[in-house]
Amino acid sequence: MSTLPLSGIKILDLTRVLAEPLSAQMLGDLGAEVIKIERPGTGDDARAFGPPYLTDPEGKENNNNSFYLCANRNKKSVTVNIAKPEGQEIIRKLVNDVDVFMENYKFGDLKRYGLDYEEIRKINPGIIYCSVTGFGQTGPYAPRAGYDAIFQAMGGLMSVTGHMDGEPGAGPMKVGPSIVDYMTGMNTSIGILSALYHRKVNGGQGQHVDVCLLDTVIASLSHYLQIYLVSGKSPPRRGTWGNGGMPAGVFRCADGELMLVVGNDGQFARTCAVLGAPELATNPKFVKNNDRVVNSKEIMAIFAGRFLKNNVAYWLKELEMAGVPSGPVNDFTQVFADPHVRSRGMEVKVDHPFKQSLSLIRNALTFSETPVKEYRYPPRLGEHTLEILSGKLGYNGAKIAELKRTGVI
Q1: Which distant-in-sequence residues (6+ apart) come within 8 Å of 231 by Cβ?
Q2: What b/e readout covers 107-130, taking b as 16+ CB neighbours within 10 angstroms?
Q3: Beta strands in 297-364 (DSSP E)
Q4: Is residue 271 part of a domain?
Q5: Smaller CB count within 10 Å for the chain: N or C?
Q6: Contacts (Cβ under 8 Å, ≥6 apart) of 134
Q7: Could you give the CA distance from residue 320 to residue 211 in angstroms, rounded to a whole number?
């Protein structure tokens, strides 16, 4: 097997819930050794975020649920109580031999335990110390806690998501999954990799990388926010309607729905032909995309009537032959049954002690020379504590037994 891109990089992962655990997982997929530190007894908060859970072979309750499983593969789990001096000492010893320290505690929390950036860099000056918080390391909101939905609201995402004004159910709407967490995880990975590159290639020092969910969601609004910055006006909620090429949106067909995006005038003319109304392409109200944006309600209504005349499969086939971007509105069963998704291998299987052939989502990166092929199951709570404490720190059996008796591990 080819050497993975991050082979040799060592990461100490003091993260919980979703955003930064996702980043640590991404880096673990790419070959980094990731040691995940969890609280004895309860572990990562994500382990308590509700069902579904894997079934314990003995039928006992366990803490391996879907929320935890999605963000913690390719890691080793070590239980350490960092509130105890002996636990803090374990962390400091591990810091000596790692490249990256990842944490997403509330602003200032780790300073109480002597595990903040200034203290950690004294032990390992080259450390890349990455902090993920809701509001960042500076600013009046820095001490606040928060979760994904809070940042969808505060960052403006909810204000431009949902049904259009005047429609039933109109008003701000949350995006279904924890999308800000996921995007923050990607930004975190970019920040860590950039800092590692700077340290290695540019002869730079270790540094503190500050990533937060509020910054991430604001930056992710991209062209929507740029519209506001240019015009001074916030874009309206458009439901499923597009915000560039028009017509664009979900159209109901005889047996379901499809998503259509007409990106330019040529595609518009071909779509009109598919729908049996070629004359629309020469109508002065619709010839150019800007015309169609101005008259969007009219053209969308005309298209809506046309799509009702046949089924989804028929329209998708005709639109594909015409070179017009379109796709079905799939549920998750349909996503994983899609032949293209299956060919891309987006569902991977790992053997977990509680379930053979446990399905996980593959890393979305594809490399020609260093493919990601190894997916190790998300570890059980404290599964690697003995391995790390004895192997890396040289603790003997008596020492480990005492740490366990006193609740340090």
Answers
A1: none
A2: beebeebbbbbeebbeebeebbbb
A3: 326-328, 347-352, 355-361
A4: yes
A5: N
A6: 141, 144, 145, 146, 147, 150, 151, 212, 213, 214
A7: 41
Alpha-carbon distance of 358 to 338, in angstroms, equals 20
SS3 state of residue 373? coil
Q: Are residues 38 and 162 in the same domain?
A: yes
Question: Binning pLDDT at 50, 70 and 90, where does residue 136 land?
Answer: very high
Mean pLDDT value across the chain: 96
88-112: pLDDT as tens digits: 999 999 999 999 999 999 999 999 9
- pLDDT classification of 242: cutoffs 50, 70, 90: confident
**Is residue 337 in a domain?**
no
Indicate if 26 and 165 belong to the same structural domain.
Answer: yes
Shared-domain flag, residues 257 and 155? no
**Is 181 part of the annotated catalytic residue set?**
yes
Q: How far apart are the first and last CA of the chain?
A: 35
Catalytic residue among 13, 44, 181, 215: 181
Instruction: Confirm if 211 and 191 have CB atoms less than 8 A apart.
Output: yes
- Do 120 and 188 fall within a single domain? yes
Please indicate, yes or no, if residue 4 is contained in any of the structural domains.
no
Smallest Cα–Cα separation from 13: which of 55, 44, 48?
A: 44
Does an H or E element contain 292, and which?
helix 289-294
Per-residue pLDDT for 174 more than 90?
yes
Q: Is residue 295 domain-shared with residue 349, that is, in the same domain?
A: no
Report the C-alpha gap between 186 and 165 in whole angstroms.
33
Q: Kindly state the average pLDDT of the residues 279-287.
A: 97
210: phi then psi, degrees, rounded to nearest 5: -110, 110
Q: CATH no. for residue 42?
A: 3.40.50.10540
Q: Is the peptide bond before 284 cis (omega within 30 degrees of 0)?
A: no
Q: Which residues contact 290 (CB under 8 A, 6 or more apart)?
A: none
pLDDT tens readout for residues 250-259 = 999 999 999 9
What is the average per-residue pLDDT within 342-362? Answer: 96
45 SS3 class: helix
State how many domains the chain has.
2
Q: Which residue range is the domain that position 81 belongs to?
A: 10-219+344-405
Q: What are phi and psi of 44, to 5 degrees?
A: -55, 135
| Residue 21 domain-assigned (yes or no) | yes
Which structure tokens are listed for 270?
């071909």
CATH of the domain at 319: 3.30.1540.10
SS3 132: strand
Largest CA distance in the chain: 85
Give the helix/strand (H/E) hosting 201: helix 179-201
